[in-house]
Write a structure and sequence with these properties.
With about 750 residues, the chain is of the alpha+beta class. The protein is about 50% helix and about 15% strand. The protein has 18 helices and 20 strands. It has helices at about 1-5, 55-75, 80-85, 90-120, 120-140, 150-180, 190-220, 230-250, 260-280, 300-315, 320-325, 335-340, 360-380, 385-415, 625-645, 655-675, 680-705, 715-730, and strands spanning about 220, 225, 425-430, 435-440, 465, 470-480, 485-495, 495-505, 510-515, 525-530, 540, 550, 555, 560, 565, 570-575, 580, 585, 590-595, 605-610. The strands form six sheets. Strands 10, 13, 14, 19 and 20 form a five-stranded mixed sheet that branches. Strands 5-3-8-9 form a four-stranded mixed sheet, with no helix packed on it. The protein has a four-stranded antiparallel sheet with strand order 12-11-16-17, with no helix packed on it. The longest helix is centred in the first third of the chain and has 32 residues, at about 150-180. Residues about 10-35 and about 720-740 have low confidence and may be disordered.
Amino acid sequence: MLGERESKEPAMNPFRKNESKETFFLPVSTEEVSPRPPSLPKKPPPKICGSNYPLSIAFIVVNEFCERFSYYGMKAVLTLYFLYFLHWTEDTSTSVYHAFTSLCYFTPILGAAIADSWLGKFKTIVYLSLVYVLGHVIKSLGALPVLGGHMVHTVLSLVGLSLIALGTGGIKPCVAAFGGDQFEQKHEEERARYFSVFYLSINAGSLISTFITPMLRGDVQCFGGDCYALAFGVPGLLMVIALVVFAMGSKMYKKTPPEGNIVTQVVKCIWFAVSNRFKNRSRDITKREHWLDWAAEKYPKRLIMDVKALTRILFLYIPLPMFWALLEQQGSRWTLQATRMNGNLGFIVLQPEQMQVLNPLLVLIFIPLFDLVIYRLVSKCGINFSSLRKMAVGMILACLAFAVVAVVEIKINEMAPSQPGRQEIFLQVLNLADDEVKVTMQGDENNSLLAESIKSFQKMSHYSKLHLKTESKDFRFHLKYRNLSVYTEHSVEEKNWYSLLIREDGNSISSMMVKDTENVTTNGMTAVRFVNTLSKEVNISLGTNLPLSVGEDYGVSAYRNVQTGEYPAVQCKTEDDDFSLNLGLVDFGAAYLFVITNSTNQGPQAWKTEDIPATKISIAWQLPQYVLVTAAEVMFSVTGLEFSYSQAPSSMKSVLQAAWLLTIGVGNFIVLAVAQFGGLVQWAEFILFSCLLLVVCLVFSIMAYYYVPVKPENIQELAEKQIPYMQKNMINLKTKNTKL
């Protein structure tokens, strides 16, 4: 998040005349521009309250706030949408999440090319915002349960996300630079303050949306479950507002025409140098000092020297994607971890994805803290804390953050119920008869499930593990009830949970095998199901739009997710009677079975037993990892861009911004690859990422140790020294279609 915010810093391009200093991905032109005829003086644009701030920037700042709210709000609930609405696996959900994020950081190259070479910034923002809005609409439609089946939802989601990635990435390099274009050259101080307000709007949009959107999903119920359509629809509405507000200021904007793209010129320069060197690989031709000198036949000397300086920085960028691979998992793996933790903090109940709000909040705290306190204290201690050293320390902090994540993951696994393995099942016996029952398995082992008889409505402390020896098996049970012996047979399949319900059947007893759904607790909510012993169907209102129906005569309902809390009076209805049930406390992340009985004169009552125990680990244990990773982000991202800009010529700053965004995209691709093909348990995957970044940090430190900093003002001097040498070696070269 911080990397994206910092990447909007504008740059100058000395290869262009009449330019704005705030153009992102700036063009370069080596041809002479014919002088333009003098034009009549234009009316100055309206200002804000008589200041030097153009009124047009108010529309741009509001547009950015709404757009960032739209993007981060949608992205906050995306992983859980994949997992619980589309029912994808955790690995698939993580892979698609990072594929989408990666695409969002590759498309700025396309947006910049369109703006600088074809449409201009204003039209690019408007047209791609329309694509953005269309993506939100399609994405919201894909979250409507009543609209088609699973395949329709999947197709709509992927199409919508693709359009959103094109829209948000396409306008990313244009909006900040377009705002900078609104200022006159003499108002540099106001322009700098504008960018501060602009970055504040980004933080505010991400901070507020990351907190609100999960509430729209979890606290609002629609179509009988979490309201993902609303959680995606509100960010879509904010994007519509962003587009309308931006268009309202159309007549006030200063619109610069497109003049070419410097990223394209850099790529062409490098390609020409490589191809020209390949054509002139004969030993008779004198070698040149640098491989980029082979582009001197076509491109200006200053551009070549600037590209040389650029390649020195890009070489240091090679290890950077691994850092982003760790940082970007806050919205995927860390959110999935939070779903298995208790979000009740006493004063507030947090949704799993709301923990992501810590990142922008801590960024706002840490940036002034590091700049005004920590860095100054380190400097007073006489330590040379250079930018490259800060980046290395940031990597180490990210390693520590993932070590903490792994420890938390291991602790969660220790407290979670074990899962049945191959040729295994978990079975619990629930005695709903009015007297104790002895349960014995008939077969090879002929063992009793429990050492003692099961009393009437006895709560079982745990499931029993049974070995099948095959993938499926028919179990024969002997039930001893009073003076009766009853034999019953049930089929089971491996890797499943089952409940054997024993019920009265006249003067005898019978049994029924119920398959328990695994992973029924979602989003930190509680799952409940009911067994109805009454002779009439019961409709139960659990605060959702659709009541839960339970069939008569020991009908068993499906699981239903409900909010954590006390349920002292749940309204129930039969065809001729209304009554309420006291469910008591349903705790965080637990799964409960309620048996509706009517064996007393007090009316129907609910007997409760716990299928899955409540989550005991508080979500607050994620706070240390967020503190560490945000500190790492501040040290790595801010100082990384600061160092890059100080080492490269002003004309190459926009190319550095493009390369910086690409490193984030590549980092997301790394997560995708590991999640899809790694095949590791989750805690081991966290350790793997931590170790990989530690190795990369070591490599980066070695590269930084041998890196010799160059002052930007020395680049021109180096260029002048190279001129005679480059001119001397332009003789007898084999060139094709080359302008000398």
